[in-house]
Write a structure and sequence with these properties.
Elements lengths: L1 H14 L5 E7 L4 H20 L3 E5 L5 E7 L2 E6 L4 H13 L4
Parallel strand pairs: 1-2
Antiparallel strand pairs: 1-3, 3-4
């Protein structure tokens, strides 16, 4: 009986789905100032995102300049560049919505 319970616990724990929480940033900006601001906004918030278990991924293959927030099955896109403060506020608002 004990072995069956252990087996069921292991089975259930291996089936839990890991939530996807990440920010993808697209760095194909038209001018160097926008591209620099995009990188700066990410760099200044990267440690905060890591503490909140939010992955940060750069996409170099896109034709866009901006951000995509992914929280499991929800996404939100921001075309254009944000300051580091605006990025932090938008991310906080987006990723906090899951607790409501």
């Amino acid at each position: 009986m004990k072995n069956i319970l252990i087996f069921l616990c292991l089975l259930c724990s291996s089936c839990t789905k890991q939530k996807i929480r990440e920010i993808i940033y697209y760095s194909n900006c038209k001018d160097i100032e926008a591209e620099m601001e995009l990188g700066r906004s990410i760099d200044l918030n990267k440690s905060k995102f890591e503490e909140s278990n939010i992955g940060v991924v750069e996409n170099l293959d896109s034709v866009f300049c901006g951000y995509r927030f992914i929280n499991d099955n929800r996404t939100k896109e921001f075309m254009g560049v944000m300051t580091d403060i605006d990025l932090a506020l938008e991310a906080e608002k987006f990723f906090a919505e899951e607790t409501k």
